[in-house]
Amino acid sequence: MVNIICKSLVIVSFVPMIIDADHSTDTRVQPTSRSHTDYQTLRVNGERMRADFEALAMIGETPDGGIDRVALSNGDLQARLWLADRIEEIGLRLRDDDAANLGGVYSGEQPDAQTLLVGSHLDSVPDGGRYDGAVGIVAALECIRILAENDIRLPVNLELIDFTDDEGTWHSLFGARAFAGMLPPEVTSELRTDNASFRAALGRVGLSLRDVPNARRDPAAIAGYVELHIEHGTRLETADTHIGVVTGIVGRTTYEVVFLGQAGHSGTTDMYKRRDALRGAAQFIVRAHDMVRARYGDGIFNCGNIQVEPGKYNVIPSKARLLVECRHVSETLMGEMELAMIQIARECAAAHGLTVDVEAKIHMPAATMAAGFVEAIESSCEALGLSHMRLASYAGHAAQALSQIVPCGMIFIPSTGGIGHSPAEFTPWADIIEGANALLQTILRLAYTNNLQDEE
Ligand SMILES: [Zn+2]
What we know:
Aminopeptidase; Alpha-Beta Plaits; nine-stranded mixed beta sheet; four-stranded antiparallel beta sheet; disordered C terminus
């Protein structure tokens, strides 16, 4: 893998050279009086996009048809090389930043115009699926290819972007949050001593922690961000609908909840006099699940990990450390739900003679997609004859961070059986083509109407 890593180093530390071969003559400049309706018959090349998808799916593939391409792993680096090669093939200007976000710029009519971002992510969860993230990358690539092939220069610059560590292997939405200037200082603190592996992973792509804040982009230069992604749910499939028009993304808070009790001999300690940290934790998990189901129909509670100490057959657990998250589409109800959860933790600790420490780790506020983007996606679906419905996303996406600084929109396509983050993830290819066409027409609509031009 040495050559791969070395080549990655070359790529990410590469000072981009303006290639833009396809924009080299004035004869190709479109008159500014054009509108998106001039291009309403444009469609993606489904076979070419599929070839991209299949090639990408081979990178980090697992025996059961999944993908293992966690952020900054060998697989991720190899996928980044693959994307950089495609970017150069099309003749885009390669662009990267100090958070390892990678992409290519398709220059518009005016170099100093705003930039519309289109992309997703190449990384996966461990043992993830082929569609999550990859669909958005290959669709963005294909949309730009179609524009370049047809010599269409937009009133905006179009930037394809792969956001680093969207899945949170190291830090949730790391690249997108760095881009938006939302990373808390502790993430990039040089004083930390508990993040050696993350430093090393960044080092593999030629970056250092202290430079990450440089990835922040000026919102004034960005027209917005649009992403195509699989739904990770069953709402589109159940409603037999082609396209989900995302209106918002749930807020998410993660917690570390630590119950502390007293270790002791499991055989000789009276069953009624134990201070069993795991017993309190177990009761907390069940009660928190029940509370959210009963009182917050749109809310989510998850305990995804428990570490127990000392962790022996014959010793009463003295410590149980839980990793917990809450999600809700409403920031207000989310706050209420979190307070109720903390109260339950305290009650469960008190009931078993324990102490509990509840520490909030990451809070990503609920995000609203821009009305202009929602309308552009819906209008594009109408023009393409695709059925569509508005929905909220219960999964975090780059748009969650970016929408804090620039207008964003997301296009969902169905996930068969609602399966996500699994090798069993599947979306029929016809659905991906329809989603990519919706993305292409949305880009054109945004470029000519919503952002810079005022033609309609
Ligand atoms: Zn994703």
